[in-house]
Amino acid sequence: MYAQGFEYYRAKSVAEAAELLRTKKDARLLAGGHSLLPAMKLRVASPAALVDIGRIAELRGIRTAGQGLTIGALTTHAEVAASPDIRKACPLLAETAAQIGDLQVRNRGTIGGSIAHADPAADLPTTLLALDAKATASNGTSSREIAANDFFVDIFTTALQPGEIVTAIGVPGQAGGGAYLKHRHPASSYAVVGVAALVEIVGGRCARVAVAVGGVTTRAFRAAAAEQALSGKAADDATFAAASEQVRGAIRDPMSDLYASGEYRTHLAVVLTRRALALAAERARS
Amino acid sequence: MASRVFGSGIKRREDPRLVTGQARYTDDFTLPGMAHLAVVRSPYAHARIKRIDASRARSLPGVVAVFTGQEMKDAGFGGIPCAWVVPNSDTKTPPYPPIAIETVRYVGNAVAIVVAEDRYLARDAADAVLVDYEPLPVAVDPRKAAEKGAPQLHADVPGNLCFHWKVSGGDVEAAFRSAEVVVKDTIRQQRLIPNAMEPRAALAQWNGAMGELTLWVTSQNPHIARFLLSLDTGTPEHKIRVIAPEVGGGFGSKIPHYPEDSMVVFASKATNRPVKWTETRSENYKCTIHGRDHVQEVELAARKDGTILGLRAKVWAGMGAYLSTASTGIPTILHGLMLSGVYDIPAIHEDVFGVFTNTTPVDAYRGAGRPEATFMIERLVDLLARELQVDPAELRRKNLIPPFTDGHTVATGLVYDTGNYEAALDKALQMADYERLRKEQQEARAKGRHLGIGLCTYAEICGLGPSQVAGAVGFGGGLWESAIVRFHPSGKVHVMVGVSPHGQGEETTFAQIVASELGVPVDDVVVLHGDTSQTPMGWGTYGSRTTAVGSGALMGAIGKIKEKAKLVTAHLLEAAAEDIEYADGKFYVKGSKDRFKTIQDVALMANVAWNYPKGLEPGLEASAFFDPPNFVYPFGAHVAVVEVDAETGEIALKRYVAVDDCGRVINPMIVEGQIHGGIAQGVGQALWEGAVYDDDGQLLTGTMMDYALPKALAFPRFELGMTETPTTVNPLGVKGIGETGTIASTPAVYNAVLDALAPLGVARVDMPLTPERVWRAIRAAKRS
What we know:
Chain A is an alpha+beta fold and 286 residues long.
């Protein structure tokens, strides 16, 4: 539980951090440190240098942007969960952040760090996918926006280029009701399965539905078939049950571990999808 | 005043230092010139060591030395002794070198040690030691390891059979012949990892000029540690001082004398520097003892009216790769003798096979043997109730041993001290409102909800124990306790005890005893423990014995103080000693309430001795030893209520009612604290915890991210009740309460879950009851 030796740099700006990332051999970014540091202590990861971005002011803050929000990459999960702006504009995101890990993790872990790490068992990628969120990435000189669906490539793999840093996450305002349900790993509190659902109801029918499923496969995914099955249909339990069955077919090669087999994860994905849809619809109505 | 202190839930004096970070643990000690030790550990579960190349490690800056097992052996250090060898069982005790010499036998087995200027350099250097291994076949499961053709761990232990121990009472064959009903189960008491909050640590300081050794160590029993260290380190007992400073929890895992304790001693001698080793959490998972690990085949014979006739069992108990300090006593004496539980069972037979496997050594873990016994009988009683379609509470009631105050002998030969089991059951059922619960369950079932109610009525053996019995059952030490009570001139008191509490709160409760008995304010008493140079000999804190046995010694010393104080008072008041009476901190002349001396008056005069009885020794100090005539047997009844989500297999613990009887209660808040923690740990076994090895002997649950410990959020508010049946075994009538929660809650919660699943046709699921296992069991039952 002692990391191997490493160099430590504290960056004062995104430009400086990008420069350090480029110039220092085998350098990794350090934000909240809640994934990287445990890996280093177990000597699973042994970067030669750490570039600490934890004190860069421009990476902080939650700003409303039209109907949506721009959330600085260093915003902690606890801040996301508690922010009145987020709870108002996008309660699904706040609800998700509130379910991450435990209090200590939520107080240190950051939204930018979480998505850049792209752990398939993380909670935020699932919800950000459902929300059609966008990540802003900077290489120190220029920046670009990456849609969530493009951002998450595979297990621990994102669309970020070497030297690129996530600076902010853009989230559209939430229309309709949302729900994030997870089966929590009893030890790690990661999502064995997490399902984010958004349901907009017009005249008793599903107008717009988004469903994302995390924890089951190597990256969270949008359950497109389930969404299509609901479009324009009555927002009732039978419809949700039928649509959630569509999730099963969308899962190929589910992950398996000591705690939960792929078969069980797939089963949970179906059940949690149905329940998340029902809860989101209930919230949409109220 | 006296009566208010004893039995009052005053706050623990230990807590302010613990919660403000002012407690000093072994790792907090830093000595001038201190070096740090790291251990090179085997990544293989079973392998021959072909070559160790430490040349690169030795050349790294800051490295003081690298040592192998052979070098340690050549320096005169012996193997780690096993201190409990159960008789009549042909127990094999193969060599347990602190650092493996030719063969490694579990993942984490020490192969070499590195001493360096700081712990980081030591760790880096340990990684730089190159070891060539020749992997050998691996045995992991205790039952399979005992089968023909299984890989052999030790050359002189054929079939990996460490021992075959038997207990027999009554005519079991006849019981099963005449049975109208027999229920059976195969129970896997999964391997558990104790996970004390503070990992282990050891700091040795060898003083060559004096030939003296000081060891700071995370121990539950520093006097035993000193005794055992004198056996394997070559330093005589009187030249060893063992200090157990603040110890952050043990749960049995800090009883053993560990290889690392000897390593730091060896390293300190070899380098002539103080040497410290602090376990990492990863090492704690692999290298600190594990608990349980039984495969149990058990059957219960009964008549159709529910009368239990006999119990028969075969148990394969995993011992791990080597015999840890108390290991062989746990699945035998502390398990097999308790199979009767609270029931009148005329015939019992059990065979226990202790089996070596390529895993971390197994030893005492909270409950140590009794959870494995209690679960067995409590599960079978529930299966019998199900078979006979009778209420499990009523079936229990029918078979309970009737109340007794003067000993009750069970079929295994134990004589329980005192018991009133039906009273505890009644109270628990009443607190739970059992009849209404059953109605609610019916209503819930009608709505497709799966509510379950689980019971456990238990008795356990603790307060270890009479030394004669310890000797007869092969325990390598005594089990008495000692205490010194010392009054200072100002009337303040020091108490020195041989027990070594590490979270149980005896600094508070022992002060309460002294305050109540001698009439001093409770804050005037300080209880010292944990340092062999400051405290009298004692056998330590485990087996819920600290209060049950330690308070006996304390009461003996208090009695001597009172007798001496009477002599001093008689002299000062010019009265006859036999006319002096004691009450509430005052020594009176019989019949005249205004003629008295307080204990503080006496303490001052005894210490200055200006005006003092001729021939009486000055000072007010007494020491006493207490060897209990029997064990104590606390008991109780627990009721758990759960709801199972049949669609996902998830389990919610809705209510938990616990009625426990630990005799007289010194501090109800501390008793409740012990019960709370115990329940949580026992529920951990039922629902979440379980060490898993793969077929290659790799520990798959080696971190807190994989091994699920109980978390506060999973628990409802515990509803606690007490009955009070004092023991006759010690002066205060107190029984142990440290392990009851762990013993009772595993079967209570397991029975509740299986009760919830009964309408779905599920009869058994292996622990821990993970959602997937429950979901699969439901699915399998639906299909069949």
